[in-house]
Amino acid sequence: MSTLLPAVDxxxxxxxxxxxxxxxxxxxxxxEDIARYLTELSDRGxxxxxxxxxxxxxxxxxxxxxxxxxxxxxxGTGGDGHHTLNVSTAVALVVAACGVPxxxxxxRAASSKAGAADTLEAxxxxxxxxxxxxxxxxxxxGICFLFAKNHHPAMARIxxxxxxxxxxxxxxxxxxxxxxxxxxxxLIGIAxxxxxxxxxxxxxxxxxERTFIVSGDEGLDELSLDEGNELADVQGREVxxxxxxxxxxxxxxxxxxxxxxxxxxHNAKALQALLMGxxxxxxxxxxxxxxxxxxxxxxxxxxxxxxxxxxxxIDKGLAKALLECWIATVK
Length: 331
Fold this sequence. Notes:
By secondary structure, the chain is an alpha/beta fold.
């Protein structure tokens, strides 16, 4: 192991992690040492202080944007291996159509078949233009896509390493904690149910008005329609753990296979059908997660109320119209 990177045997304190990941992001260690360190850290299991410290290092190097104070983000950490349809991308459109500004932070796929950026591009959104006009579209139409490569220049050297590793690392956990819009309310899905309280502690250390950290029992990085979900409700420094399932939102249970996705074109077609009102598990998954996002935003007080409001945004064509306006605006 390089002397620039510590052995993983002993967990780092938050300030130590910030220093180590600062060096890593600044490109001091070799690519081989970075890949080895990320792998060993993931195998051992990242601690809350390490996640928070690493996120602070990434935050210190990002390019920020101005955003409305009530803007939220909805995203997953990725790396769950289930290759589902793009739920959080659809949720962003639905929630924004409900009147809540959404600063969607995302990237191209690192370990899945189609990331948020890939699918939005397949839908016709000019990702380069969307990136250049993010601050404007967030202010004007209530949504933007913060392409990670545009706001995290320190990740330029890290991304190819992540793609070669093709597995989840601490960078999956750092991304949602480092939104360039400095969102104070979020719905974050993580791929490891046992990590929900650990990740929630990291978020509490960083500070938030309200964030839901969720994980499906099968390791899905979003609220699952299957048997149940771990949920951490983080408000300020306080963390409340609970269980939630689809029936609480008035939705049917469905296995993860029911929302299995494909490449960007496949996922884009499914998202288009969803916005046209197509019923089924994909719609229900989007409604479930949109309800969580609306609760986090303070727009609704219950899962069922959130599902009702999200359903209306789809069935009245508001989410579809928003996407069309977004595409037309950035051309």
